[in-house]
């Protein structure tokens, strides 16, 4: 969803390699144009594999290169653990 200068992408319950193509399309659509703030909504995401984490890092790189702020919103416990174990929680702005 894109509104004005903000956009949001709701990630699926299982965020894995198979979701890469669709996510990349949504990401490129969201960070294009006048968007200055992107939220990745993780509130439904119960599982994320290493490919899913890699896609979050791609989103961070793409948004940063376009001066778009990126927020991970409401990660569930297992996703929070993955972010913490990989120290990715230090790279992202996370809201709860």
What does this structure look like?
This protein has 96 residues and is an alpha/beta fold. It has one domain: STAS domain (Transcription Regulator spoIIAA, 2-Layer Sandwich). The protein is built from three helices and seven strands. Strand 1 and strand 2 form a beta hairpin. Helix 1 runs parallel beside helix 2. It is globular and about 35 Å long.
Largest sheet: 5 strands, mixed
Distance between the termini: 20 Å
Q: Overall mean pLDDT score? A: 94
CATH topology (fold) name: Transcription Regulator spoIIAA
Give the topology string: H per helix, E per strand. EEEHEEHEHE
Strands ordered across the widest β-sheet: 1-2-4-6-7
Poorly predicted runs of 5 or more residues: none
Helix content: 25-40%
Q: State the total count of DSSP E strands.
A: 7
What is the CATH class name? Alpha Beta
Strand content: 25-35%
CATH superfamily, by name, is: STAS domain
C-alpha Rg (nearest Å): 12 Å
H/I helix tally: 3
Short structural summary:
This protein is an alpha/beta fold and about 100 residues long.
Please supply descriptive tags for the structure shown above.
single chain; 96 residues; alpha/beta; Transcription Regulator spoIIAA; five-stranded mixed sheet; 3 helices; 7 strands
């Amino acid at each position: 969803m894109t509104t004005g200068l903000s956009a949001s992408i709701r990630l699926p319950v299982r965020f894995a390699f198979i979701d890469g193509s669709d996510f990349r399309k949504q990401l490129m659509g969201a960070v294009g144009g006048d968007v200055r703030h992107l939220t990745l909504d993780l509130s439904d995401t119960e599982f994320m594999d290493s490919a899913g984490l890699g896609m979050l890092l791609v989103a961070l790189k793409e948004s940063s290169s376009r001066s778009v702020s990126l927020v991970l919103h409401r990660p569930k416990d297992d996703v929070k653990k993955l972010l913490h174990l990989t120290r990715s929680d230090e790279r992202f702005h996370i809201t709860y």
